[in-house]
Amino acid sequence: MLTPYQSSLNTGITFSAWKIPLISKIPIVGPVLFDQNVFIYLAAILLVAVNVALFRTRWGLRITLGRRAPAAAETVGLHVIRTRYSNVILGGALAGIGGAYFTIGSIGEFTSDMSAGLGFVALAAMIFGRWRPYGALGAALLFGFAESLQSELGGAQRRDTRAFLSMAPYVITIAVVSGPRRPRPAAGR
Questions:
Q1: Any idea of the CA torsion for 123, 128, 131, 136, to the nearest 10 degrees?
Q2: Are 146 and 135 in contact (CB under 8 A)?
Q3: The model's pTM
Q4: CA 167 to CA 59: how far, in whole Å?
């Protein structure tokens, strides 16, 4: 039997929700959008910042040039390999923030297979979103809706129906990504 002191040591610690005054009290929309933890607000800020940086700055133009025409980028003096490595590091940092949400923003502890293969769904969302931040957000909302539908409808159904519903997010992911796509320019070079 655990004492109250010992049981408090075993509970996960998460970030508490930040209520934005006044607008968090708007019916339906307020609690959904403005009563979240710091990771959700950080994700919204980073979404806008990355979109602006990629499509409205010189840095974004260099990334686009290095991706579409690496030989031309080298000709004008852009070090393509260095640019690619720095962007991979930056992307890894953003993915680390997403991983931190799983452990300290959502459930407060690390468990084995806590992402349950959703990293592949995130990759599919990026592809389905045509490699654009707002498109990936829309695709992630679609896949999240499928995941939520599966968890909501799965509890009250028969065992074989639950198995089909648990496949639904992954089936939708495969169906969406298997459509015709243009290959990325200079992919793999």
A1: -80
A2: no
A3: 0.77
A4: 40
